[in-house]
Amino acid sequence: MNDETIICRCEDVKWGEIRKVLDKGYTSLNEIKRITRAGMGRCQGKTCRRILLREIAKYHKKRIEEIELTTFRPPTKPIKLGTLAGDDDD
Amino acid sequence: MIKKADIVIIGGGIQGCSIAYNLAKKGIKNIVILERNTCANGSSGRCGAGIRQQFGTKMNCILALESMKIFETLSEELDYDIELNQAGYLMLAYTEKEMKQFKKNVALEQSLGIDAKVVTPGEAREIVPPLNLEGILGGTFCQADGNVNPLYTTFAYAEAAQRLGVKYYPFTEATEIETENGRILSVMTDKGRIITSMIVNAAGGYSGPVGKMAGLDIPVYSQRHQILITEHIDLLWKPMLMSFSENFYFQQLPDGGILGGYGDPQNEVKGDNIESTWQFARTMAKKMVKLVPILKDVRMVRQWAGLYNMSPDAQPILGEHPELKGFYLSVGFSGHGFMLAPITGKLIAELIMEEKTSISIDKLDIGRFERGELIHEPSVV
After folding, report:
1. Is the same domain home to B138 and B158?
2. Looking at the domain assignment, is residue B112 inside a domain?
3. Model's pTM, two decimal places?
4. B-interface mutation test, from A12, A81, A90, most B Cβ less than 10 A away
5. Residue range of the domain that includes B118
6. Is the pLDDT of residue A87 over 70?
7. How many interface pairs between A and B have CB atoms less than 8 angstroms apart?
8. Domain of residue B283, CATH code
């Protein structure tokens, strides 16, 4: 992995951007998400969350269990506004 | 953990960070910010991103106008791109009463130098081509309104403040405030005690409980407001769309995601619940698809909630508390705290330095409620 490696495909966030945030002294997944948008795209972090947790732990020399998860927000899968607005799918 | 500070700011959101930055710029050295989670984890990072100058009271108009002036050069000032996007706000009227209020608002705004205008339904559609005009009687438009990235803006203030020497403690919660004879002695945190004679309550949705720590009743309460955001799509229109009577706001952000929300103050329980509900997503989707029908095929990817910290007249409470020397309030922003923070942070810093404030804010003191001098803001969603 190098600075050009793409970590979050949905928001096009490279490892270099994440590393810079960690270099500044930030420690949490929540901060990384808010500063880089990693995990805020279409898949909502399903792809990059595990990689991020592993790399934050490695960077700060912690165990992966010590890195707090970000909130899992609904919906589980993207859903069309037209479907949500419809009356026939309760 | 530091043992002693000149000023302790409770709350590391946009208010706390803007106040700290403005104080540090004036040369104050020993400033501490206490944030129990991360920067922008509370209402600042959960807000709708909109910044506007179209309000119904002179006070809010002046504050918003001055705040916008700061936003316009803030990326350079803080050396952080906050993604300012002056795409405008289009306010829509659905009732005669609302149209009348809008005309009054525009007259007030124009008299203060805000470039807002009344628009016909036809003109509204010229500004936003995919608009369904059903039920719309007209509206108002201000091109200089728009949005910024609230996360970047909050971190930008926090980092700029730290470069000037402010100490920012994330994951550090204020738990007690020790006072004696109307003076502050110290703040207790979950990481130790800080001796100080000055505190700023900038705790947003939790400013009521922080007041109680100091033995003070602040007439604010918090209430959940929810938001959803869609996948990124090509730009369909530019301005924020907002209606008070139909109760919604939504806009397309520069990255293509459409963000929208509404509040339900009549039915929402007061408190700090920030769970998301399915009912919200469905109702919001209905409102969006009705006004802009082509949105029916756009997908929601996420929803969340945050707290409005409401004051009795929907205007902020700013200034020192009369019963506790050195205890400053920057609370009760009632849903427009993010957009006002650049100016209110500056004003609170001026108050603390005992300077003449650049805008007179005597009337926003906590004493106005006892005096019965409320300044009701009609234009909040």
Report:
1. no
2. yes
3. 0.97
4. A81
5. 87-144+223-308
6. no
7. 80
8. 3.30.9.10
Among residues B216, B229, B278, which one has the least CA distance to residue B255?
Answer: B229
Report the residue of chain A nearest B293, measured CA to CA: A82
ipTM of the complex model? 0.94
Q: Are residues B211 and B236 in the same domain?
A: no
Asked if the C-beta of A84 comes within 8 angstroms of chain B's C-beta atoms, the answer is yes
Instruction: From residue B17, give the alpha-carbon distance in Å to each of A49, B32, B166, B169, B329.
Output: 28, 10, 9, 12, 14
| Contact: B295, A81; criterion CB under 8 Å | yes
Residues B195 and B171 in one domain: yes
Q: Is B3 helix (H, G, I), strand (E, B) or coil?
A: coil
- Domains in chain A, ordered, with CATH? 6-85 (1.10.10.1100)
In-domain check, residue B62:
no
Picking from A35, A81, A82, the nearest residue to B155 by CB comes out as A35
The C-alpha angle B274, B320, B62, rounded to 5 degrees, equals 75
**Best interface-test mutation with A: which of B276, B300, B303, B304 has the largest number of A CBs within 10 A?**
B300
* Domain final residue pick, B291, B308, B325: B308
Using alpha carbons, select from B263, B283, B276, B282 the residue that is nearest to residue B303.
B276
pLDDT along chain B (381 residues), means of 10: 97 98 97 98 97 96 98 98 98 97 97 98 98 98 98 98 98 98 98 98 98 98 98 97 96 97 91 95 98 98 97 96 98 97 98 97 96 88 77
Please report where in the chains the tokens 């769309």 appear, as a residue: B241
Decide if A63 touches B, using CB distance below 8 A.
no
Closest-CA distance of chain A to residue B57, Å: 33
Facing A85 at nearest CB: one of B231, B276, B282 = B282
Residues B236 and B206 in one domain: no
Q: Measured between alpha carbons, how far is residue B87 from residues B126, B129, B177, B239 in Å? A: 14, 14, 44, 5
Residues B125, B235 within the same domain: yes
Tokens of B211: 């007041």
Q: Is residue B26 part of a domain?
A: yes
Number of domains chain B is built from: 2
Residue with tokens 């149209």: B99
Q: Which of B262, B279, B308 corresponds to the end of one domain? A: B308
